[in-house]
Design a protein that fits this description.
This protein is an alpha/beta fold. The protein folds into two domains: 142 residues, Lyase, Ornithine Decarboxylase, Chain A, domain 1; 235 residues, Alpha-Beta Barrel (TIM Barrel). Helix 2 crosses helix 3, helix 7 crosses helix 8 and helix 8 runs parallel beside helix 9. Strand 2, helix 3 and strand 3 form a beta-alpha-beta unit. The strands form three sheets. Strands 1, 12, 13, 14, 15, 16, 17 and 18 form an eight-stranded mixed beta sheet that branches. The chain has an eight-stranded parallel beta sheet with strand order 4-3-2-11-10-8-6-5. A two-stranded antiparallel sheet has the order 7-9. The N and C termini lie far apart (45 Å). It binds pyridoxal-5'-phosphate. Pyridoxal-5'-phosphate binds next to helix 10.
């Protein structure tokens, strides 16, 4: 029994160690940045992001890629993708102005959050962005008032089972309501343009894509029989990256989706889109933090570090588990890793297998390229992670 527990720890630590070593060996230019003065620091690999983009293009050649800026809005991340010709999905005026500051044409920008502030719609339309998602009659009214000839695509609700970060409760409608919304949009002078869905972020369940594409085909056909000429199918995000387990590969997801499209769309949509966030940047970042304290409480080993759920690692609260590595040898113990703030919610992970650290040691948190800095606050006066794009 004791041996079994030890093996689990070894496995976990070996996984993180190998992940760290592989990551750095492919990016030797990161070595000088691994012991920064200032922590927490997020090191982002822009070449790696470009490679992920090219990998997606290679396996999904019929899809136009719109990077979901919410995942990581660092200007150098956006720039790397803009240089490769990526499109962008934005939700706010600030995201949009960052993209526009790089002279990206508005035709390369869409907005897929189904509920948008009026000021944002106004700004986006005024600079030439004219594709917006909707999933309510109220949103159609808002867009029709502000962006009179905009194109709208309707968001379907689809299963998010097996996705580590589900998104389906908040947005999306069933097929018949979606059809009513498209009809209403047409009556209000908007251009019914297409369909979108999101299978949930970090999706490791092919079935979500299966049901989503089948539902989209049902709506497509119903819309066609009512005289709509929809052009576009947008498959949202969901492409997973490696955390403490290996995720589905882009290549395999692409192959599966291709088969589904052949099966359910005998006449393929004129335009296919995906809007990955995590899948492009998630495993291209490594957060460097420092150990600031240790304690034993009720038999539990606690380790405190200088970042936390309020300044970068918010997804830990929703169940994202990051691989964590410490460059030391010795007997592995299980640690509960507490964040820097005084809030007891600020716990990054439990049962993390690590050798005994010392205060001042560097800790490496892998797969922190997406949904980290964008969530960070200055709670308790602690700094947001510094970002270095290499
Ligand atoms: C509308 C929309 N599109 C795309 C994304 C990106 O999803 P992911 O990071 O899973 O690729 C999100 C994530 O929240 C989203 O809400």
């Amino acid at each position: 029994m004791v041996k079994e527990v030890l093996d689990q720890r070894e496995l976990q630590f070996e996984f993180a160690k190998r992940y760290f070593e592989d990551f750095i060996s492919k990016r030797s230019y990161m070595i000088p940045y691994l012991k920064p003065q200032e922590t927490p620091t997020l090191l982002m690999d822009t070449e790696g992001i470009k490679e992920r983009y090219e990998e997606m293009r290679k396996h999904m050649p019929n899809f136009k890629i719109y990077y979901a800026v919410k995942a990581n809005d660092d200007i150098n991340v956006i720039k790397a993708l803009a240089e490769r010709g990526s499109g962008f999905e934005v939700a706010s005026s600030e995201e949009l102005s960052k993209v526009m500051s790089l002279k990206v044409e508005p035709e390369r920008v869409i907005s897929s959050n189904p509920v948008k502030p009026e000021e944002f719609i106004d700004y986006a339309y005024s600079v030439g962005v004219n594709r917006f998602s909707v999933d309510s009659f109220t949103e159609v009214d808002k867009i029709a008032k502000i962006a009179r000839r905009a194109r709208v695509y309707v968001r379907l609700v689809v299963p998010n089972e097996g996705s580590d970060w589900p998104l389906s409760k908040k947005f999306g409608v069933d097929v018949d309501t979606a059809l009513d919304i498209l009809e209403y949009a047409r009556e209000r002078g908007l251009v019914p343009y297409g369909i979108t869905f999101h299978v949930g972020s970090q999706c490791n369940n092919y079935r979500n894509w299966f049901i989503a594409i089948r539902k989209s085909a049902e709506l497509w056909e119903k819309a066609r029989s009512k005289g709509f000429k929809l052009q576009m199918l947008n498959m949202g995000g969901g492409i997973p990256v490696k955390y403490t387990y290996e995720a589905l590969r882009i290549e395999d997801i692409a192959y599966y989706i291709k088969g589904l499209l052949q099966k359910f769309f005998p006449n393929p949509p004129y335009e296919l889109q995906i809007e990955p966030g995590r899948g492009l940047v998630g495993d291209q970042g490594i957060m460097v933090a420092k150990v600031i304290g240790k304690a034993k409480r009720n038999g539990e080993n606690w380790l405190y570090i200088d970042t936390g759920v309020f300044n970068g690692l918010a997804e830990a609260l929703g169940g994202i588990r990051y691989p964590i590595y410490l460059d030391r040898e010795g007997e592995l113990k299980e640690w509960t890793i507490g964040g820097v703030s005084c809030d007891s919610m600020d716990v990054i992970a439990k049962m993390v297998a690590l050798p005994e650290p010392e205060v001042g040691d560097y800790l490496y948190i892998l797969s922190t390229g997406a949904y980290t800095t964008v969530y960070a606050s200055n709670f308790n006066g602690f700094p947001k992670p510094k970002v270095i794009c290499l």
